[in-house]
Design goal:
This protein is α+β, with helices and mostly antiparallel strands. Helix content is about 50%, strand content about 10%.
């Protein structure tokens, strides 16, 4: 009579590895066991921990249990880990709901709430194996080092994350996070990308679809943010007064912007052709248009227009402000049209306008003029203009 196959001893341990929660699988070296573990999707070997590991999810645990059936009995360990998982999930949901209520009470915009919620959920998932009272600034720093930076987030996103953590600290008094001392990285001092007037015209001409042309042209003609365009209702358009009413834009501010005379025939043609019912631009079923669709339209039009700059919908807003400044419009009026809270935000366009730069002469132009005045250097100037620098 054959003896029953002896079951192997396996230890399962929940652990954080490479910024993620995993289940470490430890057992004495056994080729058959290794082959069975490798059947589980996403099973990997950790040379550091000298153990195999899988994502810490109920689905992967069930697959591991199935793969090791007849080789090892891990039923009790799996049950305990799954129960722990469910308890922590419930606790995490309660914390997340509490934070959302806090943010809504602060009357933040929907976009700000969603951004802060994403970071809060991700961070709470990172520290979920610690008591909330033990979570402090060091955990925030480790999260940035192990999770945040490897994802390639930029400085502006880093600043949003710190903002989320500061509010998290205010919401959860029981944490050891000191929001005041969390370092906020300085803002990037990059100048915004702008298109020349000629490039804007080429872009509009290259946009062949009537609806698409109406969208991109309005972004530039009124200096709108993409969210403002998508939230624009037909009822907010006053053709007689040539005005658009922008409701609850960034900072929950209403404002009026002018409607360009040259845009009215295009807009009227678009509305008569597509017959939107509520929103100025509508998607399938009369729902608001999507931001991703606008970005896709812009990419295609830039390609057809031969524009190789990195252009986003916000580039058209930057171009609108810069061109107004170059026309001599006062910064205070531009600030009002853009809906900026602080004049410092609008002043950035003074750094990219070409109005003053045109008055500055290149040293090469000065040198060429001096050469031209000297009769005995006439031939040298000719060679210089041809690219022959052996003067």
């Amino acid at each position: 009579m054959n003896k029953a196959k002896a079951l192997k001893k396996v230890n399962l341990l929940r652990k954080r590895h490479r910024g993620k929660q995993v289940i470490m699988i430890s057992f004495d070296y056994d080729l058959e066991m290794i082959e069975q573990v490798k059947q589980v999707p996403e099973a990997r070997w950790s040379a550091t921990n000298k153990a195999w590991y899988i994502p810490a999810t109920p689905a992967r645990l069930r697959q591991l249990q199935q793969a090791l059936r007849g080789y090892a009995d891990i039923t009790d360990q799996v049950r305990e880990l799954q129960e722990m998982y469910m308890l922590r999930q419930q606790a995490s949901r309660e914390l997340v709901a509490r934070f959302r209520n806090y943010l809504q009470g602060k009357r933040f915009s929907r976009n700000t709430i969603e951004v802060y919620m994403y970071f809060a959920e991700d961070f709470l998932g990172y520290v979920h194996n610690k008591a909330l009272a033990l979570v402090g600034n060091k955990d925030v720093e480790r999260y940035i080092e192990e999770v945040f930076v490897p994802r390639g987030y930029g400085v502006s996103t880093h600043r949003q994350f710190i903002g989320a953590m500061r509010h998290l600290a205010d919401c959860f008094d029981e944490t050891a996070i000191d929001g005041v001392t969390l370092p906020m990285p300085p803002k990037d001092k990059k100048l915004p990308q702008v298109l020349s007037e000629e490039e804007v015209l080429k872009l509009i001409v290259a946009t062949r679809n009537l609806k698409h042309r109406a969208i991109l042209t309005l972004l530039y003609a009124a200096g709108l943010r993409i969210g403002e365009l998508l939230a624009l209702k037909l009822a907010d358009i006053d053709i007689q007064r040539r005005q658009l009413f922008i409701r609850k834009a960034k900072g929950r501010k209403d404002r009026y912007v002018f409607l360009a005379k040259a845009y009215i025939p295009l807009m009227s043609n678009y509305i008569a052709t597509y017959k939107p019912r509520k929103w100025f631009v509508e998607g399938p079923g009369g729902k608001p248009y999507s931001a991703s669709s606008v970005r896709s339209i812009l990419r295609q039009s830039c390609k057809r227009a031969g524009i190789h700059k990195e252009v986003t919908p916000h580039t058209l807003r930057h171009s609108f402000a810069t061109h107004l400044l170059e026309q001599g419009v006062d910064v205070r009026y531009i600030q009002e049209l853009l809906g900026h809270s602080r004049p410092e935000t609008t002043m950035i366009y003074t750094h990219i306008t070409r109005q003053d730069l045109r008055k500055i002469e290149s040293p090469l132009d000065v040198l060429a003029r001096k050469l031209q005045r000297a009769s005995d250097k006439g031939d040298d100037l000719l060679r210089l203009s041809r690219g022959d620098f052996e003067i």
